Amino acid sequence: QKEVEQNSGPLSVPEGAIASLNCTYSDRGSQSFFWYRQYSGKSPELIMFIYSNGDKEDGRFTAQLNKASQYVSLLIRDSQPSDSATYLCAVNIAIGDDKIIFGKGTRLHILP
Amino acid sequence: DTEVTQTPKHLVMGMTNKKSLKCEQHMGHRAMYWYKQKAKKPPELMFVYSYEKLSINESVPSRFSPECPNSSLLNLHLHALQPEDSALYLCASSQDGGDTEAFFGQGTRLTVV
Questions:
Q1: Which chain A residues touch B if contact means CB-CB below 8 Å?
Q2: Separation CA B34–CA B4 (nearest Å)
Q3: Which tens digits make up the pLDDT trace of B17-27?
């Protein structure tokens, strides 16, 4: 059973602080990892993707991947109230496989 | 441009109706997806098309029938649905399937009465 695990939260973080979101996956063959943000009633919006071990930074967002530990994380620096949303971790099953599965998502609440 | 367009945005249909959801992308992406999302749940994969051919069917009931008329269009035909099929239906596309990032449309909010 291919699985993507996330803590459902809610994760409450003060405004201006760093929010840290975590995700583990079960299939060692997974090669592509995605973070989506979803506001209530809206569709998922891609915010980060990462394919190689290490860190990838884009503005206030940093994705971190550790394939040996089967762990991917998302850091949000200088958290803003507009960052309050559900963050979905998504993983492809294997290289060349079109199947992308999602974790259950972590609800993030930024406290003003 | 990373736009995926879905129509309609909202749909209410009876259990005996036939309706279709439409999805369009003009990014030249080879893979197109249908996902179903219930409230407070993650998107659940239904179908994947690659180069206009059905490549993945996640054991979806036959009352849902996908169609890919060309490389830019994806349809989902609905027939004899049940109230529990009410959900947000999401279309997505990706340049190279699961190896690259997928972009979602705004979704169709479906209510079956």
A1: 31-32, 34, 36, 42-46, 49, 88, 90, 92-105
A2: 12
A3: 999 999 999 99
